Amino acid sequence: MDDRTFRNAMGKFATGVTVITTSQNGEVRGMTANAFMSVSLDPKLVLISVGEKAKMNEMIKETGKFTVNILSEDQKEMSMLFAGQLKEDRKVDFDWIDGHPILPNSLASILCDVYDAHIAGDHTLYIGKVTNIHMNDGDPLLFFEGKYRNIANPSNVG
Residue ranges of the Flavin reductase like domain (predicted)? Predict the structure, then answer.
């Protein structure tokens, strides 16, 4: 099978959208990801997948921490910004909890210390031990078949 067929099949799995953040020496880095899942309740563990060549990969290795910001339907622009889809320079104002940068108005911000890491193909799977959680009410930003969606209008997000 070719890469496009594989990607199209994976696109059939509807996901939420997250922005992974970390910081080092005052520099905040973020990346959009939909490869996120819970792993364990005891201990509380989550998993993210980061491309081996991504700058975020090196930074998480160095800092040993990351935050998973689960985006609300009103945060499509944040997703696009951290996915590199918006080319303009834009300043993002982060909130801070326990030294972790979080995106304001996210449905949940899950603060993690790296618990374990595994290289799998062209990605590193980071298992994070959850150290803190901040939550807000709202509806999620969804992603399906390569397009942003939301609960109220599942066919597309404008």
Answer: 10-150
